[in-house]
From TrEMBL:
<dbReference type="InterPro" id="IPR000257">
    <property type="entry name" value="Uroporphyrinogen_deCOase"/>
</dbReference>
<dbReference type="GO" id="GO:0006779">
    <property type="term" value="P:porphyrin-containing compound biosynthetic process"/>
</dbReference>
<protein>
    <submittedName>
        <fullName>Uroporphyrinogen decarboxylase (URO-D)</fullName>
    </submittedName>
</protein>
<dbReference type="GO" id="GO:0004853">
    <property type="term" value="F:uroporphyrinogen decarboxylase activity"/>
</dbReference>
<feature type="domain" description="Uroporphyrinogen decarboxylase (URO-D)">
    <location>
        <begin position="191"/>
        <end position="388"/>
    </location>
</feature>
<dbReference type="Pfam" id="PF01208">
    <property type="entry name" value="URO-D"/>
</dbReference>
<dbReference type="InterPro" id="IPR038071">
    <property type="entry name" value="UROD/MetE-like_sf"/>
</dbReference>
Amino acid sequence: MKDMAATLDRTALAEERTQLFKDVFDGKIPKRVPISPSLTIEFAIQYAGKNLADVQWNHLLLEEVYEKVCQDFISDTNPAAMNLRNPVHYKLLGARNFVMSSSGFMQHPEVHGLEAEEYDEFIASPYDCIMERILPRIYTELDTNPAQRAIVFAKAFKAYYDELFTALGVIGKLTEKYGYASIGGIELLTEAPFDFVADQLRGFKGITGDIRRYPDKVEAACEAALPLMIKQGMPPYPPTKYGAAFIPLHMAPYIRPKDFERFYWPTFKKLVDELAAKGQPSMLFVEHDWMRYIDYLYELPENTRMWFEYGDPKLVKEKLGKKHIISGFYPITLLKTGTKQQCIDKAKELIDILAPGGRYYFGFDKGIITADSVDLGNLQAVLEYVAENAHY
């Protein structure tokens, strides 16, 4: 009977938490502000006292790591974050774009896979250019004959999905055990076309020069990348308004407004519009400070989710809060430097600004990467305060 009662309690808790997010995504005022902290896999591993490299190379160790985070930190979504940059398949591919440092962190060196004189080739046939030119340069093990390349691909895909399904199994088990919401997380990842061209094809240095030297080609390359980014943002099953494609926005704050207007915004808006038209919402990580582009963000489809790193929360609420869903802004640096009361006061301040009218869930300004980058007591105190006090 105890087991049955516990199961019913977990089920009721999961339903309550799921309803909080449904209300937010439906434009209704929820019972209380839902919580979705960004506790990364690196944070979880360190918090559990494990070695970063050991766990990332062996996902069979994940359950112990994630269990500790679930036990100790309040959240309405499962805080067991997926490892988006698993080292196993990158190693098999001979990746140059994502490599593990000696400390166990996956890092993204400044590399490029497309030369400036190859823009026309990419524009004419982006998929073929990626397969034949770009991938063999970024992934050294693919720089070989077609038969060997197919074998490398097969091994890498097998490793990727083995690790993915192991992690999903652990996360699903803990979601059920702790009664987390079944929605509110990230399903898959895509990129704004300009960010894709910058991140993986030309590099930061290359793209900043290209928009001056080859502006027409950059513009055409973004248009050519758009269908691939739309495809990447769609799940392999019918989408729902409670799912999301995660789109981290990288380059916009680092380019001039006139370049944003020409190169970044048109294909980015087309991407979000097309995903919404297909029934797939977007969750934007609005990196750095987008305040000069806030009126552009308003033009995106209703109920686009926006996780803000920096900026003016009052202005964002005023400009976007009646149309879009807002999260973020809470500075994780304060969790390291502030007193417990200062940290709680900041949470109260942001809730008072962002919660009225709904369309808000609590989150930090960025993912917490290391266990020593925050005071763990402050982190727990803030999450507890929001759970207990952010009622409507």
